[in-house]
Design goal:
Helicase, Ruva Protein, domain 3; alpha/beta; 14% strand
Amino acid sequence: MKMRSNKGRILIVDDDAGVVDFLAELLAEEGYAVEGETSSRAALERIAAAEYDLVVCDVEMPELRGTELMAAIHARKRGQLVLLITAFGSIDLAVHAMRAGACDFITKPFHSELLILGIERALRERQMHREIIRLRDTLGETDTGDLVARSPSMRRVVELARRAARTTAAVLMTGESGVGKGHIARFIHVFSERRDKPFVQVNCAALPATLVESELFGVRKGAFTDARDDRPGLFLQAAGGTLFLDEIGEMPLESQPKLLHALESATVRPVGGTKEVATDVRLIAATNRSIEEATRNQTFRSDLYYRLNVIRIEIPPLRERPEDIEPLIDQCLNRACRKLNLPIVGISGEAMRWLLAYPWPGNVRELANQIERAVALAEHDAILLEDIRLVSEMGEPPSLGSAAATGTSLADVEKAYIRHVMQATGGNKTRAARVLGIDRRTLYRKLGEEEPEVE
């Protein structure tokens, strides 16, 4: 049995021909090329002779159990993705299977949407991994911050950053706190011709007003009581490379003319010095404030603003790019597990739906912190919804926290939550239905809309 498509090639292995036919038809409708086998040994022969993006197999089969088949597959093709399905599931068996190399584990009976979501996630993770490898092959082992850019808006940001990297022009990045301005700055640096030179980063908001100039431009011995030796500033430390001034809007007004002079003359004068020193840096600045408003209020010099605002990159908040949330969750989970040396194997569907629906006012930084804390506090081998709620100031999903106190009806709470999920997913009904754990037909009914025949 074989069904053709270009979305991805999947092999289904189950000793029940009816299950194979059902899954093949389901996945073919989703756009996959599907092949099926009722014999695990015949499946091994197929895998040896052909390439598959994913193998979906039952655990309980007469010739080889699913875990045994998976071991045999990995002995032949180490990187082959295998998703296991069983009617005899348990947390222990799921953990064992995933530690043995399964990309996911689904227990019968299951909703078809759950299987499709698991398959899409497995293939998306593999593609993301390949993209990371491709970038590292291009740049050697340079750290690009493993940028996630699944959404159209972030793809535009990355493309603009790539173009900016070809030049030495000043870059001004704007966006809310926590959106990843530092990652984009580093991305520009590692794609530029300056990648082998220093990348120096400083948060202007963290510098006392009295030390801004000495930190940026350096100090000559004897300039003040504690200046016992010459000390180079950040401009000289970043010589030949990139200087990233984060929160540039917090720089004291009296220091701004000297920064402007340094940029226009490519020289700096250390505090206490009598001569200017030549410097060669590429400047990237960032702010979470409205820099235009600051210039109107005369708390930021307009001439410095124009000098910085050569290439402008606006980074959207996480709530406006919902396509990036799930791969960011996976990335944050992997990092937290490595950092804390804890063997968390995944996130439950219920917890994932909650995370996808939350608006993330603190953006990527808040997401990373929440995932790390959940990993640290988890009592199982997977992150559960209770682990997410334990750690958070995040509270309940919108409209639920005060529902009991205000006497809100269940129907009204449901409507409010559906509206929130629709907003969080950018109006994508297919994605919203999966976050809510319902099918699209049910979502259309709850929205009071008719489902179109072709979407």
